[in-house]
Design brief:
This protein is of the alpha+beta class. The chain contains six helices and 14 strands. The chain has two domains: 5-150, S-adenosyl-l-methionine hydroxide adenosyltransferase, N-terminal (Rossmann fold, 3-Layer(aba) Sandwich); 166-262, Beta Barrel (Elongation Factor Tu (Ef-tu), domain 3), CATH 2.40.30. Strands 7, 8, 9, 10, 11, 12, 13 and 14 form an eight-stranded antiparallel sheet that branches. A six-stranded mixed sheet has the order 2-1-3-5-4-6, with helices on both faces.
């Protein structure tokens, strides 16, 4: 049997001890695991960014992977702690919407509230539940503890509202959903919606009413400093600047409107 995988995503960064301590707790409970760092560079307290990163990464991991997600501005409050099984993988984290997109992809997932003290550290810090609650639970899941042993079923997890593109016969209107480290503006417009419009002829793309001059297949199809649009690796439309930053070029950020219309 292969070693269980425990993958971590947090907003802790790597300068401080937080991530290292969580790994130590996991290994102290179950040393025979493979620990993977998805990312610890989620912007501080940015639940939406963490949710999108988790949802984009999880499908590429093997069945049985356990994800520990800690982006938790409400740590120590009355917000619940949960674990989720989507039938293929399991997820552990705060009930603050961080697992929203995972749930959207698998709405019949089984969810429990983490209340069983024997699967947590004896004292749970009000400022570091990643160490005292989430890491131990993940380690016990890796050891084979059943999800239902962790606490009662939960039917009303916190869900974040995610904007969906408006799709019409001659246009698709969406928004910038994320900005990657290169300054590319990743929208919520999927390839299928774009392809549906392009089947009827050329399209024009605007961001905040500014024209994006070209729709291309790769960044290299435009000159250095030139803006373009393309479908990125997430299968969603992106706005980019070859060798530059589209967020600066267009003065755009999360929520900025993006439209694809049939050219007239």
């Amino acid at each position: 049997m292969s070693r269980p995988i425990v993958a971590l995503v947090t907003d802790f960064g790597t300068r401080d001890a937080y991530v290292g301590v969580m790994k130590g707790v996991i290994l102290s409970i179950h040393a025979d695991v493979t620990l993977v760092d998805l990312s610890h560079d989620v912007p501080a307290h940015d639940i939406r960014h963490g949710a999108r990163l988790l949802a984009d990464c999880a499908p590429y991991y093997p069945a049985g992977t356990i994800f520990v997600a800690v982006v938790d501005p409400g740590v120590g409050s009355s917000r619940r702690a949960i674990a989720l099984d989507n039938g293929r993988q399991r997820f552990v984290g705060p009930d603050n919407g961080l697992l929203s997109l995972v749930l959207d992809a698998a709405p019949t997932s089984t969810i429990v509230e983490l209340t069983a003290p024997q699967y947590q550290r004896p004292t749970v810090s009000r400022t570091f539940e990643g160490r005292d609650r989430f890491a131990p639970v993940a380690a016990h899941l890796a050891r084979g503890v059943a999800l239902d042993a962790l606490g009662p079923r939960l039917e009303d997890p916190v869900r974040l509202d995610w904007p969906t593109p408006a799709v019409a016969a001659a246009a698709v209107v969406g928004v910038v959903e994320a900005i990657d480290r290169f300054g590319n503006l990743v929208t919520n417009i999927p390839r299928a919606a774009l392809d549906g419009l392009r089947a009827g002829g050329p399209v024009a793309i605007t961001i905040a009413e500014r024209v994006v001059p070209r729709l291309v297949a790769t960044y290299a199809e435009v000159a250095a400093g030139e803006a373009c649009a393309l479908v990125g690796s997430t299968e969603r439309l992106e706005i980019a600047v070859h060798g530059g930053r589209a967020d600066t070029h267009f003065a755009a950020g999360a929520g900025t409107p993006v439209a694809v219309r049939r050219a007239t």
